[in-house]
Amino acid sequence: MDANRRQSGIQQLLAAEQEAQQIVNAARAAKSARLRQAKEEAEREIAEYRSQMESEFQRKVAESSGDSGANVKRLEQETEAKIEQLNQQAANISPEVIQMLLRHVTTVKN
């Protein structure tokens, strides 16, 4: 009877070991599936982000290059306005500058 008990105990241990191995294998498979799913989700997010950045870049390129003629025209107008403003300011203070220069040139200090 002792032999039967030992045999039964060994069978139980083997069954428990097989069950534990199945549990470990199932956990490994689940972990592998989660990692694969996480990798796929990350790749989708990266692709979506890359697409957004690319479209933003293309939009900015189109804005800057598409309006280059308009930008040049706008810059020319701004430059002309600034030159006109500077000429006007120079014309306004020119008599004062001339008077100051004449006063300093004609005044003799001992």
Explain what the structure shows.
GO terms for molecular function: ATP hydrolysis activity; proton-transporting ATPase activity, rotational mechanism. Keywords: Coiled coil, Hydrogen ion transport, Ion transport, Transport. V-ATPase is a heteromultimeric enzyme made up of two complexes: the ATP-hydrolytic V1 complex and the proton translocation V0 complex. One of its GO terms (cellular component) is vacuolar proton-transporting V-type ATPase, V1 domain. Belongs to the V-ATPase G subunit family. This protein has 110 residues and is an all-alpha fold. The protein has one domain. It contains 2 helices and no strands. The chain has helices at residues 2-66, 68-106. The longest helix has 65 residues, at 2-66. It is rod-shaped and about 140 Å long. The N and C termini lie far apart (140 Å). The model has no long low-confidence stretch (mean pLDDT 89).
Using brief descriptors, characterize the structure shown.
single chain; 110 residues; mainly alpha; 2 helices; proton-transporting ATPase activity, rotational mechanism; ion transport; ATP hydrolysis activity; coiled coil
